[in-house]
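Researcher: Let's continue the batch. This sequence belongs to Podospora anserina S mat+ genomic DNA chromosome 6, supercontig 2, and it's 230 residues. Same format as the previous ones, please.
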Amino acid sequence: MDSNVPVPVDHQLAPPQYNELISNPLEKITLDVGGHKFTATINSLTTKSFLFKLLLQGDWKSSLQEDQSIFIDSDPEAFRHILQYLRRGVFPLIYDQKKGHNYKLYADILAEAKHFGIPKLECWLNDQLYLRCITSSTVWSSAYKNDRIPTGFQTTSIWGSDVTSTQLVQQDVNTVKTPICPHLAEDRSPCPKRSCYLSLGTMQDNVEKYRWAEVGRSIRFIQGWCSDSG
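Model: Same format as before. Here are the structure tokens for Podospora anserina S mat+ genomic DNA chromosome 6, supercontig 2:
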């Protein structure tokens, strides 16, 4: 391979000599990436990457190591996502419901995409299109409760699988008048007398009525933004 031939960059089309047919595109190759071994076919590596297209032409087998692998000077974690894209055209979405997007890893993958000459992946990361793969919104429902909800109360409402982190929030309190037994006005205990009746006009008790809102976070995955064919 002529070491003076430049690698195409800046999203330019590869010169004609880079597009020559490879004798066996389905041949498997082992890549040694920072001590981690990856296996892929020549076709997977060369379809979207200018650098691999250049590297795997001519007498490329002369650069094999003793274990018949090709050394690639790259970060293994970032390269794992590079290889996944080369194989299936799926952009890397690194998202955690609690921590959000992993911007550090996105930056590492972007650097590798530039190095390996992968224009679509580079554009996707530069434009931060991973932000469009996940949408988040607040959902809530509310109902009146007659009693105070104890600390640590767990909601029993059934939400969709896309709703996470639900919690109860007190919205407001209403006070209503409730008649009580005139015989036991002090301790508010149930009256044992069968003939007892409620004195509606004279004795009433204040009862607080609580309005609680159950609030959750809805997260949706938009698949089309994660594929270069979407």
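Researcher: Any comment?
Model: The chain has two domains: 16-132, 137-221.
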